[in-house]
Structure prediction request, 110 residues.
Amino acid sequence: MNVMTVDGYHAKIEYDEELDLFRGEILGLNGGADFYGKNPKELRAEFKKSLRVFLEVCAEKGIEPRKHFSGKFNLRISPELHEQLAIAAQAEGKSINLLAQEALRLRVAS
Prediction:
């Protein structure tokens, strides 16, 4: 996945073949904000404009711009994977939760 970052906000970047433009979608917002550009320089400039407008609208309406995340989510996995995780965690003297956090941290860091 191609991600661009501006001022601590992240956007997923994709190519829109129909428009022959790159499209960015700002992630983690309480609402939608996207932008288009022909090249990385234009895309970054449009990202900044779109973000500025989004933040101004949020300020006017008293809306928190970023989604709130509780730090909890449910994950459904197969019983076999659950067993493998439990055994691996127990062998390392860790909880399944800690083992999963470590694996998720590695995944999002790459």
Remarks:
- The mean pLDDT is 95.
- The radius of gyration is 19 Å.
